[in-house]
TrEMBL record, chain A:
UniProt lineage: Eukaryota, Metazoa, Chordata, Craniata, Vertebrata
Location(s), subcellular: Cytoplasm; Nucleus
Name of the molecule in the record: Armadillo repeat-containing protein 8
Species assigned in the record: Gouania willdenowi (Blunt-snouted clingfish)
Signal peptide: none
Iron listed as a keyword: no
GO BP of this protein: proteasome-mediated ubiquitin-dependent protein catabolic process
Stretches forming ARM repeats: 48-84, 478-520
Automatic annotation (TrEMBL), chain B:
Species of provenance: Gouania willdenowi (Blunt-snouted clingfish)
Signal sequence interval, chain numbering: none
Region span, Disordered: 357-389, 403-442
Domain B30.2/SPRY: 44-231
Identification of the protein by name: Ran-binding protein 9
Gene that specifies this protein: ranbp9
Annotated CTLH domain residues: 300-357
Amino acid sequence: MQEVTATSRHYVDRLFDPDPQKVLQGVIDMKNAVIGNNKQKANLIVLGAVPRLLYLLQQSSSGLDLRTECAVVLGSLAMGTENNIKSLVDCHIIPALLQGLLSPELIFIEACLRCLRTVFISPVTPVQLLYTVSILFFLFSVFTSDHQTVLFNHSAVQHIAPLLISPSYKVRMQALKCFSVLAYENTQVSMTLVNVLVDGEPLSQVFVRMMQRDQPVEMQLTAAKCLTFMCRAGAIQTEESCIVLKTLPCLVRMCSKDHLLEERVDGAETLAYLIEPDVELQRIASTTDHLVAMLADYFKYPSSVSAITDIKRLDHDLKHAHELRQAAFKLYASLGSNDEDIRKKITDTENMMDRIVSGLSESSIKVRLAAVRCLHSLSRSVQQLRTSFHDHAVWKPLMKLLQNAPDDVLIMASSTLCNLLLEFSPSKEPILESGVIELLCSLTQSDSPALRINGIWALMNMAFQADQKVKVEIVGCLGTEQLFRLLSDPDNSVLMKTLGLLRNLLSTRPHIDQIMSSHGKQIMQAVTLILEAEQSIEVKEQTLCILANIADGNTAKDLIMTNDDMLQKIKYYMSHSSVKLQLAATFCISNLIWNEEDGSQERQDKLRELGFVDVLHKLSQASDPNLSDRAKTAMQQYLA
Amino acid sequence: KPVSLPLHPKTRVAVMSGQSSGCGFLMSVVVHGDSTLNEQEKELNQRLRRLYPAVNESETPLPRSWSPKDKFSYIGLSQNNLRVHYKGHGKTPKDAASVRATHPIPAACGVYYFEVKIISKGRDGYMGIGLSAQGVNMNRLPGWDKHSYGYHGDDGHSFCSSGTGQPYGPTFTTGDVIGCCVNLINNTCFYTKNGHSLGRKKSNDWPNLYPTVGLQTPGEVVDANFGQHPFVFDIEDYMREWRTKIQAQIDRFPIGEREGEWQSMIQKMVASYLVHHSYCATAEAFAKTTDQAVHEELASIKNRQKIQKLVLSGRMGEAIETTQQLYPNLLERNPDLLFMLKVRQFIEMVNGTDSEVRCLGGRSPKSQDSYPGSPRSFSSPSHKASSSQPYLTGFDSSCCNGVTSNKSHSSSPHSHKACPPSSGSTLISSDISVNGSRQQPLTSDVDMEVDHFTNGVTESSSNGFLNGTSKHATEPDDCDADMEVESAQSKRQLCGGSQAAIERMIHFGRELQSMSEHLRRECGKNSANKKMLKDAFSLLAYSDPWNSPVGYQLDSIQREPVCSTLNSAILETHNLPKQPPLAQAVGQAAQCLAIMARSGSGSCAFASVDDYLH
């Protein structure tokens, strides 16, 4: 006995060594010594190892390895007798471990969680300690998806679920909050949650009960969040009654004037998230409790009354005014993202367009972002583009927003701009005059693929049926170098839009000749490259269409005719297995041999020599009616 | 020996006619060819009772179908007056036609809801769902005229006493389920479509609105759901919210500076209650700790307690004797009371519990021994409980059944039936109100019991109070089962099985008969007394009185109204209130709620007195 105590003391002494390396070795040795040895554990506790271990665990200067080993040893001590746990709890191990969860290091967090679990599942741990679940929630609020997974792997779900039916409201509430954090954008967790039973009842039903209207608002709202997150993670279908008949109405209710400003913000944001991808939910929400009109109230803070009568309230209102506005914009954006009738309802709401316009230039970045999201959602409507967007000159603040905005705002704003630049949009002209081309060209150089797409997309829209001046300006501003860089962009959509831009630039004969005369060489090069590369059918089709456009020019034709390699490629694609590519290639040939143009005879002859007539003849027998028609039309050029 | 008592064949006839009418009902169901009708009816009643527990349907019936009388001629009804179809020309708005439900929405609903399913939108789908007051023109759609509201399917507009509607919600058509909810607390209403609330509208507070539906073009067909089926919209959840709101309002009701008074008032009420029911020791202890004076002498309380114990244990003869000793003039001045006690004595004789027949060799000593600690044991379980657990008895006055939650036998002793058989004071009104619909004069006490009993057994009552009673009515059976009757079931015999006792009982019956005749000569006809006697004698018409239609009289619970009446009468002679202030306050509260219901104040729906009597 004496001996054992002596060795135990040795372990404890080593914890105080001034050399951190020796301390670490000491802790590791201690770990090995205590495993499965209850007597040793008891001795170490008696000798005061726990406070020292906790001290080391809490010092950030200890280093990750040491802190983790300390947590492991503590966990090991907790595995011993009930007395051990009591001693640990008395030493305030729980707050220390919870604090440890804040660490960015997953290994350390894992060790802390393991130890916490051992402590919590012990019957001697006082029930009141469950209140520390509230601290847990505080910690969760800063968690990332990594943290979610760690928690999940430590069966957090199984441990927290029973707390949902705890007799204490506080505990129920904190458990609920934990779930809302765990489930957020996490399919794995959400999928597990739907199968969890609490006292024989599915978790979703427990949440539904917590949403009942006689429950505290906080609980209703958080339960609705849990179900929303589970739904968005794909674990619950949107048409299930717990979503469509319970969660959605509950969230709409939270938006009403009866609730606190914070609750209204939370409710609107959650609802926006819930209905974002589902048009049916958007339709239902838009007719529930006059939601569209209800949201208009979000813009009435601070109210003129509060300013005069009550300074405190004014302060409160002011604090939440931004939050309210951005939440309303977000929800409007979700509501209007698909359905034309809903968009109309939104723009018909009192002063709605004015509010968006002023929202675009608000000081709060959050509001600006939400406002532009809302504008973007509404800009998907042809009718709105033609009417309210034009009437309120939304392009002006939008252009302003595009200057020096952070990326997320820029993505939304430029995406909206794409829609405003559609050919039927009356805003297209004034935007062009405001020098947008340079801005868009600079977007195509962004590191963010989304911005590159939006930039090139907008340019593509702008080039559609544009006059020569604009096209020249685009090509001039973008520069062929950048154009080709975009053609080799790793993002396929960027490539597609760039090809689309080229196609739009190369339309109508004079434009084709003009551009090809100045950039013909590079363009042909790019086309060759793409046709030779491993590309999708869609990309190659676009490229062949560009080639067909080039073949439509007067002088530009020669760039193809003098390029035997290119002609061989066209021939190859005329016999390709994809009808789309066959069509595009045939179209190209048809343009080259068109009768009424200068030099058509020579071209026809040359192509006949190269065997194109045979190919056309074969294609005229094709089963695809479009293709055979196209081939026949081309053949006729020879006959005439 | 020949039984020469009159047998009252009428009673049996009455019973039989009751049975045959039951058969008639069943037959009518068969004639309709709809075997689910009965089920549906049951479901409807259950749902309505659950949704609107505060509604007293004998006063204000709930809508259950459309009225065949209150409709325009272009409206056709079918399927038990739940389906509405249009049968006019439908050329112009002048051809619009409406139908109202059979009854207006009672204010005591608090929140009322019904749904209509669009079976077919017909030619143009000009359908309106809403509300209207009695007398509003039926040749119109709901909402067009004053005192009516409607939500219209063709344009989704809501009409509020005006020919022009306001944009309100989506349009609706075939297959949609449209609901209409009236909130009688804040005077708003809202409509629902397929289970989704479409948004609140302010409404004027016109009383007595009827569910109304209007159609205008051929082919339009709609089905109503007044509670026959589960609603698509979760109305119960909405009601939960309002119940919580109202209860929070009550809980937060400011007491203010009178807090001290409040406490002493409650103490006084408790003390007076204890005294009233003769819980001497408890009353004494309570008065001491709360520093109050008891307004009745201890001896007097003990006397009353003694009498009550006798009555509750079925020893009526001794009870009458003791009363006459202690309060010499009481029964002489109160012949009706004496008669009532004697009738009860007769019943106890039949039961074999009255002291006069008991000493003639009835009961087994074993059952007497089963109450240790009680030197003169009583066979009444309720008495045993109330003597050993006086604190648990709860309110045993006429006004409360909160005690149902109390699992002890004492929960049954004095349920609601303690209506004092006198009249004239303000107390009476609260008594009546408490009994809800049963506003018979109080002298017909026994009559009332009969009604209650039937209600209890069928559980068909919509009155919370009566529901409570029904439990009392069934519970004692269980109590008896292990205490008294069942132990002797195999040998449960008339007057305890002793021949001498039977003779004594028959003799007593004759005396009673002559007393009744005497009373009639002296005081004139008294139908209550007559019925009481008739019912008591009817017991002898059955070979097994305990299992006869009049067997309920033998139940020990029936001693309670007798006991309470006697107690009140004694107290009155001492110029003490015949009802404790506590019961009076509860009665007062219940009465207030009834007045609220009548005056259209919906919040009474969520403020049941029972909820506060735990």
